From TrEMBL:
Tagged with keyword Nucleotide-binding: no
Protein name (database record): ParB/RepB/Spo0J family partition protein
Keyword Secreted part of the UniProt annotation: no
Cited SUPFAM superfamilies: KorB DNA-binding domain-like, ParB/Sulfiredoxin
A Pfam family annotated for this UniProt entry: ParB_N
Coiled coil feature spans: 235-262
Organism: Paenibacillus lignilyticus
Length: 383
């Protein structure tokens, strides 16, 4: 495109352009640069009725040149008339320039998406400007804040006192306005880093903290809010640990209860086994009328079985086994000695054979009772 010199007094600023904030210090530096080496980049204008021109982009260069008293300014004259294309060009140009604030971007995007003469979508703007949709969405989120906060928002990521960056504000953007804006002012005043802002945001998003308590927290400074966050986190961790311990205790209690039930069932089974043995004749007295020794061995086994059972049904079963054992012992008195005039050899041999058979039968039944006793004793010790 051709660059032509246009008289300064014929050029008008575009009051609807996206950029309207101009840093005075930066403007003075630009003036000094133009005065020393001239205007290196022309501004872009479009024609308007009456032989005049309106700036598309280059407002800062125009202002600096006008303040220096320049009679003409190098310009590129555009033939574009479509308002959408002009506005997009203004945004694209300013995105490459220093000092285009996040709020100016947000307002420009909002204008394109909401004014009837544009009625654009986020997807369309993202494609036209070469930006991710999330970039445009995040910028528009800044419009949730009030004017007292907006005027503190600056571009870049440097944390400065009484200034706010986009990164500092995004963590608190979804808070209620009665908490959001006062918090933003605290963040700016205390120049809080983003990591601290995220902690404070979690504090105000905590549903366990009442709204009234959050209102009172706004009287604290940034350091005090961080201390409060730390205390809340510690208390929450302690409550979670206590809940874990309670759950573990309840689980152990449930396991113990299940174990007791299992042992009671085993005891009942042992008692039932004793009854079964009696019913099957395993506890019936042998063919002999006497054994060496005595004592309440079977009664003790039955008593321990009843104690281990821990239930009425098991106790009754064990009592039945005990009664059977007593009847068995009653039928087995101590043997008497042999008379001096002993029987014949054949009779003695028959007696020996009978005794051996009786002892074998008794040994078999005694083994069954001994096994039952050991199971009952083991179950009792486990309780």
């Amino acid at each position: 495109m051709d660059i032509i010199q246009i008289a300064t007094h014929l050029i008008d600023e575009d009051t609807d352009q996206p950029r309207y904030q101009f840093d005075e210090e930066a403007l003075q530096e630009l003036m000094k640069s133009i005065e020393e080496i001239g205007l290196l980049s022309p501004i872009k204008v479009r024609t308007t009725p009456g032989g005049r021109y309106k700036i598309i982009y280059g407002n800062r260069r125009y202002k600096a040149s006008k303040m220096l008293g320049k009679e003409t300014i190098p310009c590129i004259v555009s033939t574009v008339t479509d308002e959408m294309e002009i506005y997009l060009e203004q945004i694209a140009e300013n995105l490459t320039r220093e000092g285009f604030s996040p709020i100016e971007e947000a307002e420009a995007f909002h204008k394109l998406m909401n004014e009837s003469k544009f009625n654009s979508s986020i997807k369309y703007l993202a494609n036209k400007l070469g930006k991710p949709e999330s970039y445009i969405k995040n910028k528009c989120e800044l419009l949730k804040f009030g004017n007292s906060v907006r005027k503190l928002i600056v571009s870049g990521t440097e944390i400065r006192k009484d200034k706010l960056t986009e990164d500092q504000l995004l963590p608190i953007k979804d808070l209620p306005i009665e908490h959001r804006d006062p918090l933003a002012l605290i963040i700016a005043r205390d120049a809080l880093p983003v990591s601290d802002v995220k902690k404070i945001a979690k504090l105000f998003k905590d549903k366990e903290i009442s709204s009234g308590t959050k209102d009172k927290l706004l009287y604290k400074n940034g350091h005090e809010l961080l201390q409060t966050w730390s205390t809340v986190q510690q208390n929450k961790a302690e409550r979670e640990r206590a809940a874990e311990l309670a759950a573990e205790k309840a689980e152990l209690a449930a396991e113990a209860k299940a174990e007791r039930a299992r042992r009671a069932a085993e005891a009942e089974a042992l008692a039932a086994a004793a009854v079964t043995l009696a019913a099957n004749g395993a506890l019936s007295p042998g063919p002999t009328t006497s054994v060496i020794g005595g004592g309440d061995l079977f009664a003790a086994a039955a008593a321990e079985t009843a104690a281990a059972a821990g239930s009425t049904a098991a106790a009754k079963a064990a009592a039945a086994a005990r009664e059977e054992a007593r009847r068995l012992l009653a039928a087995l008195p101590l043997p008497s000695g042999l008379a001096d005039d002993a029987a014949s050899g054949e009779e003695l041999q028959a007696l020996i054979a009978d005794i051996d058979g009786t002892l074998a039968a008794l040994a078999q039944r005694a083994a069954a009772w001994q096994s039952l006793r050991e199971l009952a004793v083991a179950a009792t010790r486990e309780r």
